[in-house]
Amino acid sequence: MKINIEEKPKSNIKSGIIIKSKEDIYNMSEIQEIKNAIQEYLILIGMNNRNEVRNVNLIGIGKSNLIHLDSKDIIRTALINASDKVIMVHNHPSNNTEPSSADKHITNVTSKMLEVFNVKLLDHIIVTDTECVSMKELEKINENYEDNKLGLLDKGILLEENIRLKEKLKKNNKSRKMKMEEREI
Question: Averaged over 43-70, what is the pLDDT?
Fold first, then answer.
């Protein structure tokens, strides 16, 4: 019998980089390349469960003050590269580190969508010529973010979890009933 074994995608990183802080991200060569750019660039860093960088992918190139993104591009890249965790990084050519409303929106929508696939969005880092800021540290990720589409997603996740818990309860009740019958015998 021949079985197909799914293998991990090959890493596009040469050395074992472990992310422990936003400074580790800022010092990566790929981030150094975009920090002075006159256009916005979004990079997705994919990691394993030990925060070892597996892949660094350019997701989007925008204008001097925005990037038009679609969450599915980020999610697809994370899934194709078998990422357990991801960090989004983009530059602000204006050197303003304040997250825009579009930054907050794409971050929170993407975070919720990644949860469905058991991929954790650890952070979204904004870089400039001289510094970087963490949206996680600013508490801009999952801060009771509401969106009509996310509301539907949340309801779907709750429904799925409810079904799973009902099945578990049914199994537990069946097991308990069998144990009680065994005791009676």
Answer: 92
